[in-house]
Description:
By secondary structure, the protein is of the alpha+beta class. The protein has three domains: 7-101, Helix Hairpins (Orthogonal Bundle); 120-168, SH3 type barrels (Roll), CATH 2.30.30; 174-255, Alpha-Beta Plaits (2-Layer Sandwich). The chain has seven helices and ten strands. The protein has helices at 2-49, 54-79, 84-101, 103-118, 158-162, 189-202, 237-255; strands at 126-129, 132-139, 143-147, 153-157, 167-168, 174-176, 179-183, 213-219, 224-229, 231-233. The chain is elongated. It starts with a helix and ends in a 19-residue tail after the last helix. The mean pLDDT is 82.
Amino acid sequence: xxxxxxLFEQNHEVLxxxxxxxxxxxVIFYIGRLVAKAVSRFLEKALLGRSxxxxxxxxxxxxxxAMILIATVLMALSQxxxxxxxxxxxxxxxxxxxxxxxxxxxxxxxxxxxIILFRPxxxxxxxxxxxxxxxxxxxxxxQTIMKTPDNKLVIxxxxxxxxxxxxxxxxxxxxxxxxxxxxxxxxxxxxAKQILQQIxxxxxxxxxxxxxxxxxxxLADSAVNINVRPWVNSADYWGVYWDTLEKVKLTFxxxxxxxxxxxxxxxxxxDKQE
Length: 274
């Protein structure tokens, strides 16, 4: 016990110095983390104030936060006596090994860069990508956050999005509603087309240009199929789609136009026994 006390008295200055360095490193890391959050939030507000796309703002803020945090960690390690130059070399070698092990994450990061550069979609767009259909909320370093029409939050890896086809339903201001209406062969075709034209023309959401198309598409097995293709603003697409189907059914019922359904006639033959 006496030896430990004597050892402490001889080296208390060195121990105190190490303790102070450790405390300083912890303080540097804590303050640096707060600064990283503050700068990230300030940058986010500033860019949003300049009407920069929300998805791009989120991506840039995430990168800035990560860079400041890495710099803070290096400063804290330097404070406790770690040679940062050697540490950076070791970190680079370790980063290479980790990079090889985490190729998927690096692919997601690279895909995030591509999304930001080429802008196939922006925050608020309704898209179909990576097997998910929904509204883009944010684009982050490794993933894109989307909200589905039934208000589910889906996190999609960026590589999964850029690795396949991207359908952006909000990219163009107008869209064409494609409907196929089938009527029976016994129904009056001219009358059916007039009814469909009237339904389309009475809907104020249907655009006068480009002109709507109503034409016979096919003489199918059990029905005469008619293409109904009005043009609408993208925001009105589903409203016009659902309302038109309902109006067609109700009006056809009132006007005696029948809509056939698949059916099969079975004929049973009996052998006559003499």
